[in-house]
Amino acid sequence: MTQTRTALLALILSLAGAAAAHAHASFEDDEAASESGFKAVLQIPHGCDGKATTEVQVKLPEGFVFAKPQPKAGWEIEIIRGDYQKSYDNHGKTVTSGPLEIRWKNGNLSDDYYDTFAIKGTISGFDKQTDIAFPVTQLCGATDKVAWDEIPAEGQDAHSLKHPAPTVTVTPATAAGHHGHDMAAMAGMGNTTVKAGSLEISGGALKAMLPGAKVGGGGFTVKNDGSEDDTLISVESPAAGRVELHEMTMQNDVMKMRKLEQGIAIPAGATVALASGGLHLMFMDVKKPFAAGDSVPVTLTFEKAGKVDYMLAVGDAAGGTHKHN
Protein backbone atom coordinates (compact mmCIF):
# COMPACT_ATOMS: atom_id res chain seq x y z
CA MET A 1 0.00 0.00 0.00
CA THR A 2 2.84 2.36 0.88
CA GLN A 3 4.54 1.68 -2.45
CA THR A 4 1.25 2.35 -4.29
CA ARG A 5 0.77 5.67 -2.52
CA THR A 6 4.36 6.67 -3.21
CA ALA A 7 4.00 5.83 -6.90
CA LEU A 8 0.70 7.73 -7.11
CA LEU A 9 2.23 10.79 -5.43
CA ALA A 10 5.17 10.69 -7.82
CA LEU A 11 2.79 10.54 -10.79
CA ILE A 12 0.78 13.51 -9.52
CA LEU A 13 3.93 15.58 -8.98
CA SER A 14 5.21 14.62 -12.42
CA LEU A 15 1.96 15.68 -14.11
CA ALA A 16 1.89 18.92 -12.15
CA GLY A 17 5.47 19.66 -13.21
CA ALA A 18 4.63 18.93 -16.84
CA ALA A 19 1.58 21.21 -16.68
CA ALA A 20 3.66 24.01 -15.18
CA ALA A 21 6.31 23.57 -17.85
CA HIS A 22 3.74 23.94 -20.62
CA ALA A 23 1.73 26.78 -19.02
CA HIS A 24 1.33 29.25 -21.82
CA ALA A 25 1.17 33.03 -22.10
CA SER A 26 -2.39 34.28 -21.64
CA PHE A 27 -4.47 37.31 -20.67
CA GLU A 28 -5.92 37.94 -17.21
CA ASP A 29 -9.19 38.98 -18.89
CA ASP A 30 -9.85 37.32 -22.23
CA GLU A 31 -13.21 38.82 -23.17
CA ALA A 32 -14.08 42.35 -24.31
CA ALA A 33 -16.80 44.25 -26.14
CA SER A 34 -16.29 45.86 -29.52
CA GLU A 35 -16.15 49.68 -29.53
CA SER A 36 -14.83 49.76 -25.96
CA GLY A 37 -11.61 50.40 -24.14
CA PHE A 38 -9.66 47.29 -23.12
CA LYS A 39 -6.59 46.72 -20.95
CA ALA A 40 -4.79 43.64 -22.25
CA VAL A 41 -2.84 42.23 -19.28
CA LEU A 42 -0.47 39.55 -20.55
CA GLN A 43 0.70 36.90 -18.09
CA ILE A 44 4.17 35.39 -18.58
CA PRO A 45 4.33 32.28 -16.34
CA HIS A 46 7.88 31.02 -16.94
CA GLY A 47 11.11 31.51 -18.86
CA CYS A 48 12.76 29.49 -21.64
CA ASP A 49 13.63 26.04 -20.24
CA GLY A 50 14.62 27.57 -16.93
CA LYS A 51 16.35 30.66 -18.32
CA ALA A 52 15.24 34.16 -17.38
CA THR A 53 13.07 36.14 -19.79
CA THR A 54 14.84 39.26 -21.07
CA GLU A 55 12.41 40.48 -23.75
CA VAL A 56 8.66 40.18 -24.42
CA GLN A 57 7.29 40.99 -27.89
CA VAL A 58 3.55 41.34 -28.52
CA LYS A 59 2.06 41.72 -32.02
CA LEU A 60 -1.25 43.61 -31.99
CA PRO A 61 -4.14 42.33 -34.14
CA GLU A 62 -6.19 44.48 -36.50
CA GLY A 63 -9.03 46.00 -34.51
CA PHE A 64 -6.97 46.61 -31.34
CA VAL A 65 -6.10 50.26 -31.93
CA PHE A 66 -4.69 53.39 -30.23
CA ALA A 67 -2.50 51.09 -28.08
CA LYS A 68 -0.37 52.38 -25.21
CA PRO A 69 1.94 50.04 -23.25
CA GLN A 70 2.37 50.36 -19.49
CA PRO A 71 5.98 51.07 -18.45
CA LYS A 72 7.72 48.52 -16.20
CA ALA A 73 10.59 49.25 -13.87
CA GLY A 74 13.79 47.72 -15.18
CA TRP A 75 12.48 47.31 -18.75
CA GLU A 76 12.80 49.46 -21.87
CA ILE A 77 9.85 49.81 -24.26
CA GLU A 78 9.96 49.83 -28.05
CA ILE A 79 6.80 50.67 -30.02
CA ILE A 80 6.72 49.54 -33.66
CA ARG A 81 4.24 51.59 -35.69
CA GLY A 82 2.65 51.12 -39.08
CA ASP A 83 -0.54 51.40 -41.13
CA TYR A 84 -3.82 49.82 -40.05
CA GLN A 85 -5.71 47.78 -42.64
CA LYS A 86 -8.61 50.23 -42.37
CA SER A 87 -9.38 53.58 -40.75
CA TYR A 88 -10.75 54.14 -37.23
CA ASP A 89 -12.44 57.06 -35.51
CA ASN A 90 -10.73 58.53 -32.45
CA HIS A 91 -12.97 61.22 -30.94
CA GLY A 92 -13.94 62.56 -34.35
CA LYS A 93 -10.48 62.20 -35.91
CA THR A 94 -9.89 59.55 -38.59
CA VAL A 95 -6.82 57.45 -37.76
CA THR A 96 -5.15 55.11 -40.28
CA SER A 97 -1.94 54.12 -38.46
CA GLY A 98 -0.63 53.39 -35.01
CA PRO A 99 1.23 50.84 -32.86
CA LEU A 100 1.40 47.35 -34.42
CA GLU A 101 3.83 45.72 -31.99
CA ILE A 102 5.02 46.37 -28.44
CA ARG A 103 8.37 45.16 -27.08
CA TRP A 104 9.56 45.22 -23.48
CA LYS A 105 13.36 44.86 -23.69
CA ASN A 106 16.51 44.46 -21.58
CA GLY A 107 14.67 43.13 -18.52
CA ASN A 108 15.33 40.12 -16.30
CA LEU A 109 12.39 37.95 -15.25
CA SER A 110 13.64 34.84 -13.47
CA ASP A 111 12.04 31.50 -14.34
CA ASP A 112 11.15 31.29 -10.61
CA TYR A 113 8.64 34.13 -11.00
CA TYR A 114 5.72 35.18 -13.15
CA ASP A 115 4.91 38.73 -14.24
CA THR A 116 2.38 40.73 -16.26
CA PHE A 117 2.78 43.16 -19.17
CA ALA A 118 -0.11 45.55 -19.88
CA ILE A 119 -1.29 47.35 -23.02
CA LYS A 120 -4.27 49.70 -23.00
CA GLY A 121 -6.17 50.23 -26.25
CA THR A 122 -9.54 50.25 -27.97
CA ILE A 123 -11.25 47.30 -29.65
CA SER A 124 -13.16 48.45 -32.72
CA GLY A 125 -14.78 47.24 -35.92
CA PHE A 126 -16.39 43.92 -34.88
CA ASP A 127 -20.10 43.27 -35.45
CA LYS A 128 -20.10 39.60 -34.43
CA GLN A 129 -18.31 37.47 -31.85
CA THR A 130 -14.69 37.06 -32.92
CA ASP A 131 -11.47 35.75 -31.37
CA ILE A 132 -8.48 37.99 -32.00
CA ALA A 133 -4.95 36.70 -31.43
CA PHE A 134 -1.92 38.52 -29.98
CA PRO A 135 1.18 36.49 -31.01
CA VAL A 136 3.81 36.70 -28.27
CA THR A 137 7.53 35.94 -28.32
CA GLN A 138 9.66 35.53 -25.18
CA LEU A 139 13.41 36.02 -25.59
CA CYS A 140 15.82 34.62 -23.00
CA GLY A 141 19.26 36.02 -23.72
CA ALA A 142 20.68 36.19 -27.23
CA THR A 143 19.66 32.75 -28.52
CA ASP A 144 16.79 31.17 -26.57
CA LYS A 145 13.16 32.02 -27.17
CA VAL A 146 9.58 30.73 -26.86
CA ALA A 147 7.03 31.81 -29.47
CA TRP A 148 3.36 31.74 -28.45
CA ASP A 149 2.10 32.30 -31.98
CA GLU A 150 -0.01 29.31 -33.04
CA ILE A 151 -3.55 30.25 -34.12
CA PRO A 152 -6.16 27.47 -34.26
CA ALA A 153 -7.84 26.71 -37.56
CA GLU A 154 -11.61 27.06 -37.79
CA GLY A 155 -13.20 24.46 -35.51
CA GLN A 156 -9.87 23.52 -33.89
CA ASP A 157 -9.52 23.52 -30.09
CA ALA A 158 -6.81 25.98 -29.03
CA HIS A 159 -5.86 23.61 -26.17
CA SER A 160 -4.62 21.13 -28.77
CA LEU A 161 -1.84 23.55 -29.78
CA LYS A 162 1.58 23.37 -28.16
CA HIS A 163 2.23 27.12 -28.31
CA PRO A 164 -1.14 28.90 -28.72
CA ALA A 165 -1.17 32.66 -29.16
CA PRO A 166 -3.02 34.54 -26.38
CA THR A 167 -6.51 35.47 -27.59
CA VAL A 168 -9.36 37.78 -26.63
CA THR A 169 -12.99 36.96 -27.44
CA VAL A 170 -14.66 40.11 -28.78
CA THR A 171 -18.43 40.36 -28.36
CA PRO A 172 -20.70 42.74 -30.34
CA ALA A 173 -21.08 46.19 -28.85
CA THR A 174 -24.76 45.60 -27.98
CA ALA A 175 -23.70 42.87 -25.59
CA ALA A 176 -21.25 45.07 -23.69
CA GLY A 177 -23.68 45.83 -20.90
CA HIS A 178 -23.61 42.16 -19.90
CA HIS A 179 -19.88 42.15 -19.41
CA GLY A 180 -19.32 45.40 -17.53
CA HIS A 181 -16.95 46.98 -20.06
CA ASP A 182 -16.42 50.64 -20.95
CA MET A 183 -19.94 51.98 -21.50
CA ALA A 184 -18.68 55.56 -21.75
CA ALA A 185 -16.63 54.63 -24.80
CA MET A 186 -19.67 52.99 -26.36
CA ALA A 187 -21.86 56.01 -25.73
CA GLY A 188 -19.55 58.09 -27.92
CA MET A 189 -19.87 55.80 -30.91
CA GLY A 190 -22.45 58.04 -32.54
CA ASN A 191 -19.53 60.32 -33.42
CA THR A 192 -18.00 57.60 -35.60
CA THR A 193 -17.69 58.41 -39.30
CA VAL A 194 -17.90 55.66 -41.91
CA LYS A 195 -17.28 56.11 -45.64
CA ALA A 196 -18.82 54.14 -48.49
CA GLY A 197 -17.86 55.34 -51.93
CA SER A 198 -18.75 59.03 -52.13
CA LEU A 199 -20.97 58.80 -49.03
CA GLU A 200 -19.96 59.73 -45.50
CA ILE A 201 -22.17 58.50 -42.63
CA SER A 202 -21.87 60.12 -39.20
CA GLY A 203 -23.78 61.24 -36.11
CA GLY A 204 -25.63 57.97 -35.53
CA ALA A 205 -28.05 58.19 -32.59
CA LEU A 206 -31.05 56.44 -31.06
CA LYS A 207 -33.34 57.47 -28.22
CA ALA A 208 -33.65 55.29 -25.15
CA MET A 209 -36.93 53.39 -24.83
CA LEU A 210 -39.27 52.85 -21.92
CA PRO A 211 -39.34 49.37 -20.33
CA GLY A 212 -41.54 47.03 -22.35
CA ALA A 213 -41.61 49.28 -25.42
CA LYS A 214 -41.33 47.59 -28.81
CA VAL A 215 -40.78 50.58 -31.12
CA GLY A 216 -37.71 52.82 -31.16
CA GLY A 217 -36.50 55.70 -33.31
CA GLY A 218 -33.33 57.45 -34.38
CA GLY A 219 -31.11 58.24 -37.32
CA PHE A 220 -27.81 59.55 -38.66
CA THR A 221 -26.43 62.00 -41.22
CA VAL A 222 -25.38 61.12 -44.78
CA LYS A 223 -23.15 63.43 -46.82
CA ASN A 224 -22.83 62.78 -50.56
CA ASP A 225 -19.55 64.21 -51.88
CA GLY A 226 -19.97 62.55 -55.27
CA SER A 227 -21.39 63.71 -58.58
CA GLU A 228 -24.20 61.10 -58.67
CA ASP A 229 -27.40 60.84 -56.65
CA ASP A 230 -27.80 57.81 -54.39
CA THR A 231 -30.70 56.34 -52.40
CA LEU A 232 -30.90 54.73 -48.98
CA ILE A 233 -32.97 51.66 -49.85
CA SER A 234 -33.22 49.78 -46.57
CA VAL A 235 -31.86 49.33 -43.04
CA GLU A 236 -31.52 46.10 -41.08
CA SER A 237 -30.57 45.43 -37.45
CA PRO A 238 -30.28 42.29 -35.30
CA ALA A 239 -31.79 44.34 -32.46
CA ALA A 240 -35.22 44.58 -34.12
CA GLY A 241 -37.65 42.53 -36.15
CA ARG A 242 -37.46 45.14 -38.91
CA VAL A 243 -36.35 48.72 -39.49
CA GLU A 244 -38.46 51.14 -41.55
CA LEU A 245 -37.66 54.46 -43.21
CA HIS A 246 -40.16 57.12 -42.14
CA GLU A 247 -40.91 60.82 -42.59
CA MET A 248 -42.76 63.22 -40.28
CA THR A 249 -44.95 65.82 -42.03
CA MET A 250 -47.58 68.38 -41.03
CA GLN A 251 -51.05 67.73 -42.49
CA ASN A 252 -53.86 70.12 -41.49
CA ASP A 253 -51.93 71.18 -38.40
CA VAL A 254 -51.45 67.54 -37.36
CA MET A 255 -48.03 65.90 -37.28
CA LYS A 256 -48.21 62.55 -39.09
CA MET A 257 -45.68 59.92 -39.97
CA ARG A 258 -45.55 57.86 -43.14
CA LYS A 259 -43.40 54.97 -44.29
CA LEU A 260 -41.13 55.68 -47.26
CA GLU A 261 -41.45 52.60 -49.45
CA GLN A 262 -39.14 53.99 -52.15
CA GLY A 263 -36.31 54.82 -49.75
CA ILE A 264 -34.64 58.14 -49.00
CA ALA A 265 -32.89 60.12 -51.74
CA ILE A 266 -29.30 61.28 -51.10
CA PRO A 267 -28.69 63.92 -53.84
CA ALA A 268 -25.18 64.57 -55.15
CA GLY A 269 -23.42 67.29 -53.17
CA ALA A 270 -26.11 67.27 -50.47
CA THR A 271 -26.23 66.33 -46.78
CA VAL A 272 -29.34 64.50 -45.56
CA ALA A 273 -30.08 64.23 -41.84
CA LEU A 274 -32.27 61.52 -40.36
CA ALA A 275 -33.57 62.60 -36.96
CA SER A 276 -36.78 63.08 -34.97
CA GLY A 277 -39.23 65.50 -36.54
CA GLY A 278 -38.37 64.69 -40.17
CA LEU A 279 -36.74 61.80 -41.98
CA HIS A 280 -35.83 59.07 -39.51
CA LEU A 281 -35.54 55.34 -38.75
CA MET A 282 -38.22 53.34 -36.91
CA PHE A 283 -37.17 50.10 -35.23
CA MET A 284 -40.13 47.70 -35.02
CA ASP A 285 -40.49 44.67 -32.72
CA VAL A 286 -37.40 45.64 -30.75
CA LYS A 287 -36.05 42.59 -28.94
CA LYS A 288 -34.80 44.53 -25.92
CA PRO A 289 -35.63 48.21 -25.22
CA PHE A 290 -32.71 50.48 -26.06
CA ALA A 291 -31.03 51.83 -22.92
CA ALA A 292 -28.93 54.99 -22.62
CA GLY A 293 -25.25 54.17 -23.09
CA ASP A 294 -25.88 51.15 -25.34
CA SER A 295 -25.05 50.96 -29.04
CA VAL A 296 -27.08 49.26 -31.76
CA PRO A 297 -25.58 47.83 -34.98
CA VAL A 298 -27.29 48.44 -38.32
CA THR A 299 -26.61 47.51 -41.93
CA LEU A 300 -27.46 50.28 -44.39
CA THR A 301 -28.13 49.43 -48.04
CA PHE A 302 -27.65 52.16 -50.65
CA GLU A 303 -28.55 51.87 -54.32
CA LYS A 304 -25.03 52.73 -55.53
CA ALA A 305 -22.75 52.59 -52.47
CA GLY A 306 -24.03 49.14 -51.46
CA LYS A 307 -24.11 47.74 -47.93
CA VAL A 308 -22.50 49.59 -45.03
CA ASP A 309 -22.24 48.44 -41.39
CA TYR A 310 -22.71 51.20 -38.86
CA MET A 311 -23.38 51.71 -35.14
CA LEU A 312 -25.97 53.96 -33.48
CA ALA A 313 -25.38 55.24 -29.95
CA VAL A 314 -28.37 55.33 -27.58
CA GLY A 315 -28.98 58.65 -25.81
CA ASP A 316 -31.70 59.92 -23.47
CA ALA A 317 -35.32 58.73 -23.60
CA ALA A 318 -37.58 60.20 -26.24
CA GLY A 319 -40.34 62.57 -25.40
CA GLY A 320 -43.74 62.76 -27.11
CA THR A 321 -45.51 60.34 -29.43
CA HIS A 322 -46.07 59.90 -33.14
CA LYS A 323 -49.33 59.46 -34.97
CA HIS A 324 -49.28 57.01 -37.89
CA ASN A 325 -51.41 57.06 -41.02
Automatic annotation (TrEMBL):
| Pfam hit, one | DUF1775
Q: Which UniProt keywords apply?
A: Signal
Where would one find the signal peptide in this protein?
1-23
Which CDD domains does the entry link to? YcnI_like (cd08545)
All copies of the YncI copper-binding domain together span 24-170
Query: Where on the tree of life does the source sit, at the highest rank?
Result: Bacteria
Q: What is this protein called?
A: YncI copper-binding domain-containing protein
